[in-house]
Automatic annotation (TrEMBL):
SUPFAM superfamilies: POZ domain, Voltage-gated potassium channels. The lineage of its organism: Eukaryota, Metazoa, Chordata, Craniata, Vertebrata. Residues 182-416 form the Ion transport domain. The gene is KCNF1. Its main location: membrane. One of its GO terms (biological process) is protein homooligomerization. The chain crosses the membrane at residues 183-204, 248-270, 324-341, 385-406. InterPro entries: Ion_trans_dom, K_chnl_volt-dep_Kv, K_chnl_volt-dep_Kv5/Kv9, KCNF1-like_BTB_POZ, SKP1/BTB/POZ_sf, T1-type_BTB, VG_K_chnl, Volt_channel_dom_sf. It is a multi-pass membrane protein. Residues 25-126 form the Potassium channel tetramerisation-type BTB domain. One of its GO terms (cellular component) is voltage-gated potassium channel complex. This is Voltage-gated potassium channel regulatory subunit KCNF1. Belongs to the potassium channel family. F (TC 1.A.1.2) subfamily. Kv5.1/KCNF1 sub-subfamily.
Amino acid sequence: IKMAGDSRFPDVDTDGSEKNEETEIVVNVGGVRQVFYGDNLNQYPETRLAELINCLSGGYDSIFSLCDDYDPGKREFYFDRDPDAFKCIIDVYYFGEIHMKKGICPICFKNEMEFWKVDLKFLDDCCKTHLSEKKEELEEIARRVQLILDDLGIDASESRWKRCQKYIWKFLEKPESSYPARVIAVLSFLFILISSVVMCVGTIPDLQVVDAEGNRMEHPTLDSIETACIGWFTVEYVLRLISSPNKLHFALSFMNIVDVLAILPFYVSLTLTHLGAKLMELSNVQQAVQALRIMRIARIFKLARHSSGLQTLTYALKRSFKELGLLLMYLAVGIFVFSALGYTMEQSHPETLFKSIPQSFWWAIITMTTVGYGDIYPKTTLGKLNAAISFLCGVIAIALPIHPIINNFVRYYNKQRVLETAAKHELELMELNSAEGKAANSKSELEDLAREGKEDPFHSSRLKVSHSDTFIHLLSEEKHYRTRLQSCK
């Protein structure tokens, strides 16, 4: 930044009394020079550019606390910062708000705003959205890396039970951690498929047997397979619950609630079968058992635990509630309108199938969704015309919100793959940095560490701290280094 206008700009050793609102400030940031005036800068006196107006009276110490270099001959201040970001930030002095240009990393832009001491409240709402999304991505990367580092780290101070608990949790919850864990995950997946197939096959009449009272029941072999699957699910759930680091969060998790719903009907049915007859009529017991056995369909949702595609679909539907609401609203309006029209137009026909408007709702639903069962259909010419318009409107109403839902699915799926790749790259950079740091350590530093009673720097827990402090800035309070995540190449 250069102070222009010699007659109005005092030297470094003056008291600054001649500075006023007409003082000119010329900014040189990364080779880009910009002229400012005091009346603009003084609107925001807490910013770094406004502080330059009064820094000369404090001497060189005050000057170099604000800038990277200063040329007293040219009276020019130099900043080794991003010029593209600076061009956006200076808009606050002219327009009172800031917009990020396309292609600038939001996290880097936030750091630039902090350097120039410009409050984030001046950033426009549309740009704050990009910033929050980027922060969430970095936090997710940091969380994944931290989980991996926690798995690799070994805390000798922990009890044997704690170490065993962590091992069981990693063994059951993280198939990628080891080959035996992957085998267990595959077995769990197969048990889910087998139990689902057995549930379906058990309803085939040819495979059922007749009991002493003449009632059909599942084949004993299928019951044995069902019992074995339930035993596996029970043991798996109990071990996961015991090894869970946060048991309350584990119990309230959606997927774990699904696991309970998949297991519970078996034990409730078993209890009712053996004890229920003493408390209620046999027919009521059989009805209750049959209703509980229907709940076995919940176990198919256990597949979502082992399928990233189903998890992505679930997330996409959660993020698409607005679009799904619009779809239901479009269909509801169309169903009401076309069912009322169809009922009115079909009343003149003596063999009409449209007995009432509520009954016509069913016809409108299957027509607008292009299912068309044919159980209810119009017989008049106007009714057929109304049906043709209704299914055309139904196709349009369904097609309009589908594209945003698909975009949410693709965006989240690609984002998850990018985050996984970024986490792996961070770990690779950590290992590379650790290897370079080990080669650079001198023998005297190792002796000092030994005298101070610290751990061996080659220990994995020591490695974890070094990685966290150096590369993943979100994992530590210290921010001494710029990382690949911060530079966002």
